[in-house]
Amino acid sequence: MTWDFSTEPEFEAKLEWMRDFVRDEVYPLEVLDADEAGFMRIVRSLQAEVKRQQLWATHLPPELGGQGYGQVKLGLMHEIEGASVWAPIVFGNQAPDSGNSEILAHFGTPAQKERWLHPLLEGRLRSAFSMTEPDNAGSDPTLLSTAAVLKGNEWVINGHKWFTSNGMIADFLIAMVVTDPDAGPYERASMIIVPADAAGLRKVRNIPTMAGEHERFGYGHAEILYEDVRVPADNLLGKRGAGFLIAQARLGPGRIHHCMRWLGQARRAFDMLCERALQREAFGKKLASHETVQNWIADSAAEMQAARLMTLHAAWIIDTQGAAAARREISLIKFFGAKVLHDVIDRAIQVHGSLGYSADLPLEEMYRHARAARMYDGPDEVHRVSVARQILAGYQAPEGMWPREHVPTRREAAQLKFAALLEAATTDV
Amino acid sequence: MTWDFSTEPEFEAKLEWMRDFVRDEVYPLEVLDADEAGFMRIVRSLQAEVKRQQLWATHLPPELGGQGYGQVKLGLMHEIEGASVWAPIVFGNQAPDSGNSEILAHFGTPAQKERWLHPLLEGRLRSAFSMTEPDNAGSDPTLLSTAAVLKGNEWVINGHKWFTSNGMIADFLIAMVVTDPDAGPYERASMIIVPADAAGLRKVRNIPTMAGEHERFGYGHAEILYEDVRVPADNLLGKRGAGFLIAQARLGPGRIHHCMRWLGQARRAFDMLCERALQREAFGKKLASHETVQNWIADSAAEMQAARLMTLHAAWIIDTQGAAAARREISLIKFFGAKVLHDVIDRAIQVHGSLGYSADLPLEEMYRHARAARMYDGPDEVHRVSVARQILAGYQAPEGMWPREHVPTRREAAQLKFAALLEAATTDV
Amino acid sequence: MTWDFSTEPEFEAKLEWMRDFVRDEVYPLEVLDADEAGFMRIVRSLQAEVKRQQLWATHLPPELGGQGYGQVKLGLMHEIEGASVWAPIVFGNQAPDSGNSEILAHFGTPAQKERWLHPLLEGRLRSAFSMTEPDNAGSDPTLLSTAAVLKGNEWVINGHKWFTSNGMIADFLIAMVVTDPDAGPYERASMIIVPADAAGLRKVRNIPTMAGEHERFGYGHAEILYEDVRVPADNLLGKRGAGFLIAQARLGPGRIHHCMRWLGQARRAFDMLCERALQREAFGKKLASHETVQNWIADSAAEMQAARLMTLHAAWIIDTQGAAAARREISLIKFFGAKVLHDVIDRAIQVHGSLGYSADLPLEEMYRHARAARMYDGPDEVHRVSVARQILAGYQAPEGMWPREHVPTRREAAQLKFAALLEAATTDV
Amino acid sequence: MTWDFSTEPEFEAKLEWMRDFVRDEVYPLEVLDADEAGFMRIVRSLQAEVKRQQLWATHLPPELGGQGYGQVKLGLMHEIEGASVWAPIVFGNQAPDSGNSEILAHFGTPAQKERWLHPLLEGRLRSAFSMTEPDNAGSDPTLLSTAAVLKGNEWVINGHKWFTSNGMIADFLIAMVVTDPDAGPYERASMIIVPADAAGLRKVRNIPTMAGEHERFGYGHAEILYEDVRVPADNLLGKRGAGFLIAQARLGPGRIHHCMRWLGQARRAFDMLCERALQREAFGKKLASHETVQNWIADSAAEMQAARLMTLHAAWIIDTQGAAAARREISLIKFFGAKVLHDVIDRAIQVHGSLGYSADLPLEEMYRHARAARMYDGPDEVHRVSVARQILAGYQAPEGMWPREHVPTRREAAQLKFAALLEAATTDV
Description:
Four copies of one chain form a homotetramer.
Chain A: H1 9-26, H2 36-52, H3 71-81, H4 87-90, H5 97-107, H6 110-121, E1 127-130, E2 147-151, E3 154-165, E4 172-178, E5 189-195, E6 201-206, E7 221-232, E8 236-237, H7 243-279, E9 281-282, E10 285-286, H8 291-321, H9 327-352, H10 354-357, H11 363-372, H12 380-392, H13 410-428
Parallel strand pairs in A: 1-4
Antiparallel strand pairs in A: 2-3, 3-7, 4-5, 5-8, 6-7, 9-10
């Protein structure tokens, strides 16, 4: 039967294991007060368990250790990982390394793979992704200004980036730079691999944000200055001018993963909401018996269900028709899902009152992180416009929907059609 | 692969035929200015075509002429029918006859089927469904007050109903009445078949509503008085006290059909929205180039997609696990879908300006009908509460989520766990 | 004390009288099933009572019988009139005659006043206002296409209008026409008085709309064709090219009246909501004890209060600084108020269930009328953009809000300022 | 004239001074990286300037140094102070000292004033307010559980509080405790002054919250254990059992101040929104030219205007009719204003993109603080229910609004009334 929403039993068993594992082993990491060494020791023991379960870095192609799962299955896994900020690192999926390893795998030369990809996968190198610029709206590709000029056998890079994920601790950065300023808006940029110790590369700071202290051990979003940074011409990743193409390839399925992780976050908040509602009493009855709380639960359930089915549907289109065919669906879930994420966490906080506002529970951190979801991977506003344009491309302005020349009413106009129709009907029956 | 959102090609061909047929042959009925005889002549010719395509009354069990389609397929068909108010009558699915024929088929005795069901299916009788009461909130079964008392071999019925669909023109009514006032809240009522010409049955009027003139030819929602109406004891439909059970069986899949029809309505409004946006200009550019309109298009697309997937998901649960398993999902789509329906039509009207407000286009009628969707089949508010209760039943109040006895912070508490964890990790790796 | 929200006692007494009068004498008109003659006989007896109270046509200047009330007082009166669709006619304020008499009073020549204004005020003539065109977005003045060309001593008018208020029954129309196509966008149009019996003027029909049957006795919104209609050059109203200026003068205070009437409508719906909530029971308690209904009441109260204070504030600006100074405030209340109107009526309907949907109560008619409020007098979308532009004109792009040259953090930058500040503080205290 | 929204010129001059002073002298405090001593040295120099302007602690009665301003004027001042988190301390209005000094002034004995109030006003003591409990919903007075028992000449206090403002640094706490457990729900509690060094008083910690690092120098919301804390019987503040009464007196005008401060916050965010919109470009034009941003500006302007007028209206009721008369209005602005605050800041962040999410701008901190506004001073949900109850108390269930006995339609029923009316009209005219 088509329209089948079921999950294969053997895969469902894996998901079940993941759910237990994340709840029992990964949640505690959130409140672990250890130094980096102690923290990483535990993380590595959990990673080892994940590898034993053959669930490590499943987004990678099989030749690099992935399981060949399509986006639907990856999505269902990301949903579970999303419940905790530390799960992606435990499962080998943490941004930006996961995305970087994907594009290295797909677009890298054998030498690049040897030099950067394999050490990255083995955890011996860490990577950053350097695209956003403080001076320019990131959603508009024509505004990108960091430039690389080919001088002899070297790219000379100048520019100013920020929100470069893991920029302070990375061993290399993948930088999006303008190499062909006179090309069409989507062919101006290229990706170039930049070693973190290149001369002229200045790591200014980790930018303090609403996300706050979570970004410990140097993780975070860095401000980076490129001042006459020189890298070998061979560090070009993929073709010259293919920067946006690669970025899209990186971001498309990545958005599925984001949305599914958001759903995992939302589900965890929702669970807390329901449990608290059953625990707490006000004005003579449990919060769970107050209609306002019941409305929140019902609306949250509907919205999470909506976002979930839409995301899995988009994943299914990628799996069956390719990422390009899913462009509209991916934009839809981007802005729809980001709102669901916020709203569910917001209600969970309100049900918890001052406890929810406090850092004694993870909700307030989830709330702060959720605010970013409406911006990264393109602000919601840009996705809305993009969706509308794609949809409108499938329509044409009507002719004669409302014929004006003779000022007939629609009813009058229709009579003409019905003259024949009535006649036919009379003879027909 | 599981999670399959595709449609079988041969069934897709049927849907394609339906789409063309509804647009080309059924839409014109909306503006046909004929008397009842002329109107019905055309309708019958269209019905004949539907029967030739084996798409007539597909909700019925195969032995009564249905195709054995499950709810997913019926849903996809209802989506197409929903685009026009006249499509259900053309496809043999019009309320309340469709629901009435279903419960007669499932719960009727052979004699009842002979006397009422077959003539109904053949179009020789028309039926009404008489449940709502003006004095009582319909959503609360304990408030039902129309009563039937068994005297000798007859039920004697007294009470006051309204919004009895097709009550003025029906040949018989299926009335929901209290037969066992002392039973539990869901076992008090029964369904009884009442001939329209029974003495004491007073057809007061068709109630004028926001739906307006569309309800022509006597169709409409009637106010009915039962004053010592006597019907044979054999007219009991199903078991005594099974009224709510039967009503649920009638309403459950019916809600799927409603929601899918709403989506058909919404899709038609959305098409008009997009076409108008490409046609009309204001302030130097097409409406389609105004961001506000683009936002409406994107939000409408997301919401329709959400409602559609949720409804088909609920249908799939009915098909694979039975209607009872889908109770929560059906409530979700009831209130989620009713809002989507309204919002999309509302935006389509706004894009059309005064033309959208005028009756020259079908939008204003769709808008008026859409307002009822938040009330019938249970007001949205009742479904929200019902969903919340079902969900909460799956949770327990936590113990020790935030252990109060020792006033530890959550972070402190977690350290205890990590002592062992750190130790294990140290030895483990 | 400034910031005084009180009402003068003697004026409050008049308002009190109006409230009683509208409820007791005008509400019944809504359900009066009389022919036009009978209906108007009653209306005239009510109008006589209004005149005795010196409350007739109070929007007019004192020399034409008004009381010299400013917009705040007129607003408070319109709030009361708004509760019933028939109140404006009883109080001599009905559109479009009220607006037409105002512009004739302000811009008409003595001869025009003699010929059109005085008979209008005496009820011997009826007027129409003919601006909207089916082919063009009414909010964009550059699109107006109905044209008048001066040939000899006559204007020759050609064009197509619709939603011409009372166009079918009017004795004369005030038409907005392009007289100077090459002038600036706001100087292209003029207003011309057109007798209804002018040759070439074709009254096509009253346009059926969502507003429905209320528009009885020929009242309504007409479609009008101007085909070589000739009127004397003297029929120009005001200066050539002043059409938009006059329209603004007409619409500005008129929007205050609209918004206050909306509040009267909303208040009536709100009263019904509260009363029904206290009357009706569901699930073991009054609707008034259900939190969902309580939330609706609280939100409605807040929104009505907001809209009311904003509208009276705008009226106060007109009274103290002139209509031009209130342009932004008037746009604000236009879109804010229209939403409040809809939302309150919508909740009132929902609380009444099927009764609210039925025409047994006035709510469903109020709902249909409310839908138009988001379109007439300029669609909400245009007012939003207009407000934003006015506001943005008061700002400048910042320089150095976030100085980029040296990539300092905001905190670093501030230290410079504080060096001096700390020093000063040390010596200062 | 009544309905006067103007501000007295001499007071407007003071406000003007405040606006300049806050922007030029107080904003910089937000980014001052000084130790407490350095920080307080600057603060004191600013406070001295405020005192010179006679704007210090204006909420106090004149005998304690206030200016005798009513709530309208105080509100206008708080609006300006609200723009920066540090302004209240500079103007002598910082919570919880301001509220504590007010209740000491109103309810304290001469000895209490001597001992606690005067040192507090002189800045020699700091105070805390200790009401919220972790185990009980704060909005429900019947749940308060911290208890004080009178043993001999001492109160013995046991219980668990949290979110005790400034609990870690205070010299004394005003604690809300149950003294009369068997009294009516609003007469159970009393307020008692507790010296911070009382034996048995355990300051557990400052609770980490979403508000984050701002709460420096020990400011913050503390968790406090009362374990057999003994204080003299004379430390009772006001009458025994008057705890809730005093809390209301403290919170009522305090909510006006909160709401006005929120508006100051919102206004600052709005200014940043507009300025950024004019500065930043995307897709070929300034953000200010994008309709989505224009819609945000227009909606923000409308909502801030609404909240502002509502708050000043509530203040005016307090000034003219007393705080009790303003109970409903105060609840309205509580929940209405908290949403406006959030929504405006949220839009300002979105316009700034990642810069808005970063701590380089104050927006992200404002956003985190705004989230608490929906909880403190009673969660919005409780205020909504309270408003609804107050409103419903003014209504009665209708009789005969829809007379059922004879099943007439409303139209039929009205005809009876009109028989006489028509007759009267005939003779009357």
